[in-house]
Specification:
With 194 residues, this protein is an alpha/beta fold. The protein has 6 helices and 7 strands; from the N terminus they run βαβααβαβββαβα. It holds the Pfam family FMN_red.
Length: 194
């Protein structure tokens, strides 16, 4: 059985480096034998997380759609930019809303239960967005996912991609391959224990 992996970027900006990293991840995961779904968070716009809003109107339908997608996959790969050495608000808001879900109608729904997560980052600086992944790692641990150790950070992202969308730098490509292989391996192990 192929592990089902959900991939998304943490920016909706046209031409975002994180979107390009997510695209490389998708190709790499498919080459390594995963069943991959790539989504764009712009298709699941959400209001700012607000418990008063939740109490008044319930969980937004786009959060429910994301929760169902998360639950339907064995693993998740997030390609995140770094905003001021931390998590972009789009990613944090998405994680927070999905964490509020406990049921879908009258059926239990735990979107993060048993999920294996890989983290990637990018920036136009020398650290490749890695500083933001410390915070993202902490948040994903708190919602109950298993985060793999391997991660892929892409420094100087404005110069990192070839015309075909692949990484120019072999070291970065190998880092992505290690990250994706580890995600697949950990996901397969998690599936075998169900």
């Amino acid at each position: 059985m192929l592990p089902k992996i959900l991939v998304f970027a943490g920016s909706n900006r046209t031409g975002a480096f994180s979107g390009q990293v997510a695209n490389v991840a998708v190709r790499t995961l498919v080459e390594l034998g995963a069943d991959v779904t790539r989504i764009a968070l712009i298709d699941y716009l959400l209001p700012l997380m607000d418990q008063d809003l939740e109490q008044e109107k319930g969980i937004p339908e786009n959060a429910m759609k994301l929760g169902r997608l998360f639950a339907a996959h064995d693993g998740i790969l997030i390609a995140s930019p770094e905003y001021n050495s931390s998590i972009p608000p789009l990613v944090k808001n998405t994680i927070d809303w999905v964490s509020r879900i406990s049921k879908d109608g009258d059926k239990p729904l735990k979107p993060y239960a048993g999920k294996v997560v890989a983290l990637c980052s990018s920036s136009d600086g020398n650290f490749g967005g890695a500083r933001g992944l410390y915070h993202l790692r902490s948040v994903m641990m708190n919602v109950g996912t298993q985060i793999i150790t391997e991660q892929c950070s892409v420094p100087r992202a404005q110069d990192a991609f070839a015309e075909d969308g692949s990484f120019k730098d072999e070291r970065t490509a190998k880092s992505m391959q290690r990250t994706c292989q580890s995600l697949i391996d950990h996901t397969r192990f998690a599936i075998s224990r169900r």
